[in-house]
Design brief:
alpha/beta, D-Maltodextrin-Binding Protein, domain 2, 15 helices
Length: about 350
Amino acid sequence: MSLRSLNRRRFVKYGALALSAGAVAACSSSPEKEAGADASATGGSPEVIVKKEKVVASWLPIMQTTAYYVALEEGLFEEAGIEVESVKFENPNQIIESLVSGRADFGPPGAAAGITVLAEAKTPGTFKVFGLQGGGIKSDFINDGLIVKPDSTIASFGDLKGKKVGTIPGIQWKTILSYILKKNGLEPGSTVTIEQMAVGLHLPSVVSGAVDATLSLEPTGSIAEATQQAKRAMVNPVSMFISDPFYSGAAVLTSKFLTDRPETAKKVVQVIDEATKIANQDFDKVRPIISKYTALEPDQASYVAQPRLRGFNDLDATDLDSYQKFINVFFEEEVLEQEMVVQNLMLDKAELG
């Protein structure tokens, strides 16, 4: 289905809502209605002003956030009567902190799935997860890679003894890397040195020799191979050692937002679901959007790997099992003090009415 056809369908869908809202506004005694009546009396056309619901979104400029970019570009929030205050962060920890503190209402796709659970453990009842993003071996969506120089002899994690490995800042990816290293008979901090570094430094650090390898999220691997500056020694290694598929990203609502403004929260979920469908149906058509919101150049957006995007209505038992296995790693690595049940964190359809 073309974007134009989808737009036509959304127009019909949201048109009824707009007409309903217009009828309510027309029957009110608001200043907007009075202004419209004056205009009518003088021969002008009455103007109905419908106030939009303001929602604050905290997001990360990565591939997993693609559905949010589509929603913004296609005007889906506006069509649903929502005004979005879009706040960009460069660190996944900051996304979750903004939600916990109440400075934001939701984290679009790409919020850290692991950090969400860690925060929920400290402040129970804070979050509801309504989507997952990542990749997988069986599904053939690339989420991450072990990145090395083109002439490197490193072919697996077992070859990293005595080496220095970079990864994404924060507890989520440090825990993932530590877990995988241990599964390969290595001891983080002893036989292998872990360096946390900004995503933009991963490829330059491998090329310069500052690190021997990086465990990196897309699009680092795609750019490395397309430019021939580096290569993927392993594709989707996290899926190999933790779960397949593997989801490092999540779409998250705060429970306060859901409780205080349930109808608006429902619209946010529907908008992200719609945008996810558009991205999944024809990813090549939405590629040009990605470079507008991320550090990718337009030509790079044309070849980066497509992420595995799962909307609220897509989620199934396989997805939840995968997420649970990921969270179990935090307990096994003693980052979580108690076991967490992912099902309790997921948004339930009954909560949307």
